[in-house]
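User: For my dataset I need records formatted as: sequence, then structure tokens, nothing else. Please produce one.
Assistant:
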Amino acid sequence: MVGFVCVAAIGLAQGAKDYTQKGRELLEKEEYVEALLNLNKALEIDPNYASAYYFRGNIKSQFDDRHGAMKDYNTALEKNPKLTEAFFARGNVKMKLQDYYGAIDDYSAAITLNENFVEAYYNRGKAKQYLQAYQDAINDCSKIIAINKKNVDAYYMRGLLRIEFGDLKNGCLDLSKAGELGDLKAYELIKEKCNQKNQEKD
């Protein structure tokens, strides 16, 4: 009897996994209604399947249902406290709600689980920028660059932050690097921020 129960439980878990995988594939194709139906089915089969809540949260987030998304991410993390992507996604919802301290907390949790999570460092840096914690935000950009020396966005953001923080020379060098790596917006900013300041000193 015990064996039968185990087999049934494995079958249910597999069913939830299959529906979740199907939901994920449909989500990537932007077939949201079908994706939602599959994820709901997965959760009917196994109400503890964390990934299904996570992907369903992504659909809700896509439609700007921030509180619905938050609820699904909360449940995903209750079911699996090591679901790195759910911390990151919940942080993104908090950013949209201008809960910057809460967002930083979630991005930090994602980084604790994956110390090379570049997007989490980047978004945490943005949240710190909004709170005017410039040096902390610069440190996050530097961490990204340590992981990937060709990360254009990190050079661009660090350049802006350094200029805001009063470190004009290094800020302009970062913008120059961003331009060199292909971000043409950086050259517009160099013209506006770097050359103008130098002219004022002449």
